[in-house]
Amino acid sequence: MADETTEVLARFAATLDYDAIPERVRDYCKNVLVDTLACALAGHQGEETHQVAALAAGLAQSRESSVIGGDRLSLAGATVLNGYLITAVTMCDIHRPTLTHVTPEVIPAALAIAERDAYSGRDLLVAIAAGFETMTRVGIGLDYPAFRARGWHGPGVIGPFGAAAAAGRLLHFDADTMATAFGLAGSQAAGTFAAWGTPTVKFHQCRGALSGLMAALLAQQKFVATRQFLTAGDGGLYHTYSNGGRPEAATADLGTRWELEQIGLRLWPSASSIQGFITAMFDLVEKHRLGPGEVKKLRVSMGKTAVDMHGIFPRYQGKFEALLSIHYAAAAILHDRALALAQFEPARYNDPKLARFAAEQVEVKLDPALTGVQARVEADTVDGATISVRCDHPRGAPENPLSRAHIEDKFRTYAATRLADSRIEEIIGMVSSLEELGSVRSLMDSLRAGEDRRLRAPAAA
Predict the structure, then answer these.
(1) Among 90, 147, 225, 338, fewest CB within 10 Å belongs to which?
(2) Distance (Å, rounded) from C-alpha 152 to C-alpha 148?
(3) Does residue 365 share a domain with residue 411?
(4) How far apart are CA 133 and CA 12, in angstroms?
């Protein structure tokens, strides 16, 4: 079975149909889609979004594909820009077993093909499920600790497989063509943690979407590629990017246990690894009603990975470092009792009082007993008391999921900056009843902003 891992996953993605997806899984895919669209609309406020928009516009001059909350670009340009928009302000999904964001790769490629060829909402839903499950399955087969020890960054490496699976499912690939698409996707797998602390980690994600789309379109032309990419002894993903991996994990209980249900969502903009600490901070200020004048010192304890990645910005520089900083998030939540994009505007994160509190009154400590996103926050108060709050599962994690109402409210909040109220409710309704949507073009028409919506994409061939 190990030698056939790529082909097993390809057969699954190629043959998946609507009735094979449990209702709870279909509903979760819809939840993730609404959340993804919210993140993309918020992404227009990203610091680097205009730079990626310029790249996307330069890739080609056609205008057949919609930008979420924007205008039209080429198929490739819209895929790149939509991928970046989803991750631009650091609040999209996270598949915690592989510390990988899944939606910036899968959703743009699926939307691009579904809109171009006027596929139905049901077709889109199946494609999203195929992409999510394929990508997360490829990821758990890597043996993530060994993969991470070599410096690899998940989204750029495994993202192309998810995008290729989603696009290939819409294009009605057979298992052989899908396996070829995976070989082409793997040949573009790249991205390392050398980029950490820079927006390049987000570029890994949108480039992963484009790589998967190109893999599918080239496979459609019957281009020849290996159909055993994952386990190939010389250069295969699991041998080259890891220690041989755990290929049996990639296919175990395939179609009965859904790995995509381990995709967590984020209620707040900030790094995924510190969502547990943020949950604890909100518990502290909401349940104990503490304000900044009552706190002498905040101590945040987390495991080594979180401290190494996010405890290093007591004096953050700019928006991206603020989004990564435990120190800043602690100060902002205590002072504002909120953590939304407003807290990541220059006027707020450059406030001298807030910056001084973050640097001088927030202490980040390593606690080897804490792992993953687990966190403990202790507040020393001015009256001599110490209040302690612990979080094991942040809001939005599979163990502590967001409700559909929470996700829809997130969508309304960030859609309001780009879309009319009537269209916001229209989009929520379309995704809620995605199976009944005749053409994804209707959804993409509603998601565009500031252009003549009478323009139509070319008819499907």
Answers:
(1) 338
(2) 5
(3) no
(4) 9
At CA 33, angle to CA 79 and CA 339, rounded to 5? 100
CATH number at residue 206: 1.10.4100.10
Which is nearest to 244 in space by CA: 153, 146, 157?
146
Cβ-based neighbours of 317, under 8 Å, separated by 6 or more: none
The reply to whether 276 falls in a domain is yes
CB 335 within 8 A of CB 298: no
Q: Tell the residue number behind the tokens 């296919």, with chain if given.
A: 251
Residue 458 lies in a domain: no
In this structure, are 12 and 121 located in the same domain?
yes
Q: How confident is the model at residue 294 (pLDDT cuts 50, 70, 90)?
A: very high
Confidence (pTM): 0.92
Which domain, by its residues, includes 87? 2-267+402-447
Closest CA relative to residue 75, chosen from 85, 62, 86: 62
pLDDT at 131 over 80: yes
Q: How far apart are CA 175 and CA 163, in angstroms?
A: 16
Residue listed under structure tokens 């829809």: 408
Residue with tokens 């043996």: 143
Predicted pLDDT of residue 450: 62
Q: What is the CATH number of the domain that holds 375?
A: 3.30.1330.120
Same domain, 314 and 330: yes
Count of domains forming the chain: 2
How high is the pLDDT of residue 90? Answer: 93
Of 298, 373, 309, 365, the closest CA to residue 332 belongs to 298
Are residues 179 and 96 part of one domain? Answer: yes
For residue range 89-119, list pLDDT tens digits in order.
999 999 999 999 999 999 999 999 999 999 9
**Is the torsion defined by CA of 206, 208, 209, 211 positive or negative?**
positive
Q: How far is residue 76's CA from residue 108's CA, in Å, rounded to a whole number?
A: 10
Answer yes or no: do 42 and 156 share one domain. yes
Q: Which helix (H) or strand (E) holds 40?
A: helix 23-42
Q: How far is CA 201 from CA 194, 204, 380, 382, in A?
A: 9, 5, 36, 41
Dihedral sign of CA atoms 416, 420, 423, 429 in order: positive
**What's the Cα-to-Cα distance from 332 to each of 237, 266, 353, 379, rounded to whole Å?**
41, 17, 11, 15
* Length in residues, the chain: 461
Query: How far, CA to CA in Å, does 381 sit from each of 42, 275, 277, 352, 386?
Result: 36, 24, 19, 22, 6
Burial class (CB in 10 A: 0-12, 13-18, 19+), 413: middle
Is the pLDDT confidence value at 305 over 70?
yes
Question: 371, 391, 411: which is the final residue of a domain?
Answer: 391
The helix/strand/coil state of 91 is: coil
